[in-house]
Structure formats: structure tokens, C-alpha cells
Design the sequence.
């Protein structure tokens, strides 16, 4: 029921946006988040249909990452600082991760200032999606790539907004979101996927003795879904060599 209501709301928002001729880049962060959740839910439903009603396939390795684990990783990395477009200094002092049904989002909050005028400040909020999760080939750890899709800025002054601050807010709002990508481009998730499986030794009971064997495996991320405040990562394992 919840998914149906959300789908209807999102489709209505998308219809209105298209009617007005707005591009995705001109939609508010809230509207963009909603549309991405709709797309994620549609992909989840399509996957369930392909897998006989199961949201995640049962013939692959399943790794489940809780929201609070990723939140802890983000908290340990704060504050984040980055010069954007060679003129704005962005300092993020708070981060929030939300693994909602259909869409995983990271929100960074902080302040932006002019590099040449540090006293000209604006509040800034950066919205990013946990776009893809893959495996680091060397460590075997999971890595989430982060893609910024929206930025919102506003004045830090309640009254009497100065012209430089107004101009800073306006310029930040017009800045291409790709310029904010270096602020947070990836998150290393402290979950390791092994590169082999060990079969224990058997015997000598019954007159048969089989030594321990290690089978090298290759792991590839097949799919990532976000729901119930978790990432559900499906991993396909293939044998890469002879047993040792």
C-alpha cells in the first residue's frame, strides 16, 4: 500500500514537471529525491517479477549492510572540505545517510564561503546518491560510489542579507552539480568479501581421508537494492582457479 501511494505521488510529480517543461536539473532536491525513489521502486518490482516474487535472488551471495554502519563511516570522515570551481570553499560538518525503499541517499550539511572573501558565508546542503557498490580488487572490501545530484544554498543571515551573500547563494544555486563531486566521491564500507572458500578436511573415520582444500573464487556485484534502512547487495561468485 505504501509503495502504491508513493508511486502515485511520484508519477504525479513527474507529470507536473514534464508539463512545465522543467529539466531534472531544475527540480528541487525534494522532487529529484522523490523521482529517484520512484525509479528505484520500479526497478525493485521488476526484479521481483523476474525472480519469482523474490526481491533478492537466492542463487547468489547476499550481503546486507545496515544504515547505521554507513552513517558511522561518514561521521568518522567529518568535517569534509573542498574548493569548488576554484572559488568556493565548501565545509561539510554534518552528514546523514538514509537507505529508504528504492533509493539510498547521502545528505551533507555545512557552509560555503568565497575563497577570496572568507567572511561571505552561506549555508549549503549537498544531496548525493549511493549509486553503485563494487568490490575493491585488492582488499575485497565493498565500496559505494557517491553521485551528487542536487545542491541547495541559502543565506546564513536572518535579516539584512548583504549583496555579496545574495550573490554567493545565487551563484552556488547555478553551479553545475558535477563541480561538487570531489567533496564526497566514494565511501569504503568496512565489510570484506573473501576471495576463496575453504573445504574442511575429512576422515580418517570410515577409511577415507580427504585433506583440506581451498577453492579460489571471484566475486562480482550483480545488484544493489535499498529498502528497510539497509543495502541488500547480491554478489555472484565464480571459481577462478584449481583447488589447492
Sequence:
Amino acid at each position: 500500500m505504501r509503495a502504491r501511494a508513493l508511486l502515485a505521488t511520484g508519477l504525479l510529480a513527474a507529470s507536473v514537471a514534464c508539463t512545465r517543461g522543467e529539466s531534472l536539473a531544475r527540480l528541487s532536491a525534494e522532487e529529484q529525491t522523490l523521482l529517484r525513489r520512484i525509479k528505484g521502486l520500479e526497478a525493485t518490482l521488476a526484479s521481483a517479477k523476474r525472480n519469482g516474487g523474490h526481491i533478492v535472488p537466492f542463487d547468489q551471495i547476499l550481503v546486507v549492510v545496515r544504515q547505521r554502519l554507513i552513517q558511522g563511516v561518514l561521521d568518522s570522515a567529518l568535517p569534509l572540505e573542498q574548493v569548488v570551481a576554484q572559488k568556493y570553499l565548501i565545509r561539510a560538518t554534518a552528514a546523514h545517510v538514509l537507505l529508504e525503499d528504492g533509493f539510498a541517499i547521502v545528505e551533507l550539511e555545512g557552509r560555503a564561503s568565497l575563497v577570496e572573501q572568507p567572511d561571505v558565508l552561506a549555508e549549503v546542503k549537498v544531496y548525493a546518491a549511493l549509486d553503485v557498490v563494487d568490490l575493491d580488487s585488492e582488499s575485497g572490501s565493498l565500496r559505494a560510489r557517491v553521485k551528487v545530484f542536487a545542491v541547495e544554498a541559502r543565506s546564513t543571515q536572518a535579516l539584512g542579507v548583504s549583496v555579496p551573500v545574495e550573490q554567493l547563494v545565487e551563484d552556488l544555486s547555478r553551479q553545475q552539480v558535477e563541480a561538487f563531486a570531489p567533496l564526497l566521491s566514494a565511501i569504503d564500507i568496512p565489510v570484506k568479501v573473501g576471495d576463496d572458500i575453504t573445504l574442511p578436511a575429512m576422515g580418517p573415520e570410515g577409511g577415507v581421508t580427504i585433506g583440506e582444500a581451498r577453492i579460489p573464487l571471484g566475486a562480482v556485484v550483480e545488484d544493489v537494492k535499498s529498502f528497510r534502512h539497509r543495502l541488500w547487495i547480491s554478489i555472484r561468485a565464480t571459481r577462478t582457479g584449481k583447488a589447492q
In short: The helical segments are 2-20, 29-50, 67-77, 163-174. Residues 4 and 103 are 16 Å apart (CA to CA). The first strand starts at residue 61 and ends at 66. The beta strands are 61-66, 80-84, 88-100, 103-114, 121-135, 141-155, 186-192, 196-199, 213-227, 230-239.
